[in-house]
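@channel sequence for tomorrow's demo:
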Amino acid sequence: MSLCVNHGGVAVVAATGIRVSAVDLGVQPMTFECIAARITSFTSRCLAVVIYRPGSADVTASFVTELADVLDRVLTFADPLVHAGDLNLRLERQHDPHTPWSSTTDGLRSASTSRRCDARRQQSIGHRVYA
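structure tokens (generated this afternoon):
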């Protein structure tokens, strides 16, 4: 992904009194933008991970591998996890070659099982499902 033309972007913004500190995940993905931060308010805290993948970019094996790596890394933190952003994946298109579970890469296939079930349920009641 080129950072020369950027139509998306990621940020973590908080109100006064909320402490936000950057968290280094030890990886800098090339197929999507990602930022992680620890958010603390009084005695509560969580890890926020914000991801943006341009909808104009194809879903490649590199994307799946990098996303799986980021998710593996954030799951090692003890804090509750908040994931936000836009992956621009059409989860209801199970036979589309650009969806993670129709590729030969198994990176997200097992992780997406519950999301696919939810996508099927949502689609059956007339909703569009995006990730």
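heads up for whoever presents: Residues 90-131 form one domain.
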